[in-house]
Amino acid sequence: MPRKPDATSVHHRLLPAPAGMERKEEKVPSPAQPHPLAPYVKQINPEEVYTLRQVAALLELAPTSVSGMVQHGWLPGSRMRPHTHGGRQHAWTGKQLIRIANRPVKVTYDHEKFSPATLYRVGCRCPVCVRAHSEDSLSRRRALAEDAFNVEKRTLLLDLVARQTPVAEAAEQVGVTTWQVYGRATWDAAFAESLDDAAWSLCVLGESDSRCSTAAGYRGWETGASPRPPCRGTGCREWRRGASQQERGAPADDRELAGRR
């Protein structure tokens, strides 16, 4: 049987050309797709009026992307309302948006008319649209991370750690989790360096001790004549980080043995 075309892509049909002329390509739209608003129907209040910017916020798109959707007929029936800062703006009732959301759309993935983020929303998975979606998602996540763990909180946490407050306790005092602290350090190089500098204050043995940055320092020795707590200073944390990377790269049997140590 002949292979059916991919339902999520734009197809081209080669038309027969007159003698002496090259064949011409005609764009054929893909089969109907769910409307971009469809996943958000439950968030739409039928009694409310939505401006273009509010629709953009609902879809997590830029207003320019939604303007493109209006221009190309994906959001019909809007009324023009006065804008608070002058001019006019598109607006829809919630009932209109719900009706629109329940109508499928025939999509042609036209990269000249629509932004990659918009096309990703309606099913395009070309490298450009996938990359744009990934960048948008990363930007949103980091914006949320910045709101939750802003510069004031980071400064306070670093100050607490530099004064020998363990990271977990400092995070609790600041109002964040250790996951947020170390998660930020994975992509914010400046913060990671500042955290490492501050965490040297947590060193139990001292940088000059031969056991610093070793398994013995990290695990501590809580019995015997000279007990000492496990060290969570920068040197010993770096040792543990390296050991974890080696364990992840080791065969399963070796990892099991490492876990028993």
Mean pLDDT: 79
Number of helices: 12
- Count of folded domains: 2
Sketch the major β-sheet. Answer: 3 strands, antiparallel
Describe the strand arrangement of the main beta sheet, using strand numbers: 4-6-5
Cα separation of the termini = 60 Å
**Given the C-alpha coordinates, what overall shape results?**
elongated
Total beta strands: 7
Low-confidence stretches: 1-29, 252-261
Secondary structure layout:
Blueprint: E1 11-15, E2 24-28, E3 32-33, E4 49-51, H1 52-59, H2 63-71, E5 79-82, E6 88-93, H3 94-101, E7 105-106, H4 116-121, H5 127-148, H6 151-162, H7 167-174, H8 178-187, H9 189-199, H10 215-219, H11 234-249, H12 252-260
Antiparallel strand pairs: 1-2, 3-7, 4-6, 5-6
Helix pairs in contact: 1-2, 6-7, 6-9, 8-9
Could you walk me through the main structural features you see in this protein, from its secondary elements to its overall organization?
This protein has helices at 52-59, 63-71, 94-101, 116-121, 127-148, 151-162, 167-174, 178-187, 189-199, 215-219, 234-249, 252-260; strands at residues 11-15, 24-28, 32-33, 49-51, 79-82, 88-93, 105-106. It is mainly α. The protein is elongated. The longest helix has 22 residues, at 127-148. It folds into 2 domains: 33-140, no CATH class; 147-260. Mean pLDDT is 79; it is low at 1-29 and 252-261. It has a 3-stranded antiparallel beta sheet. Strands 1-2 form a two-stranded antiparallel sheet.
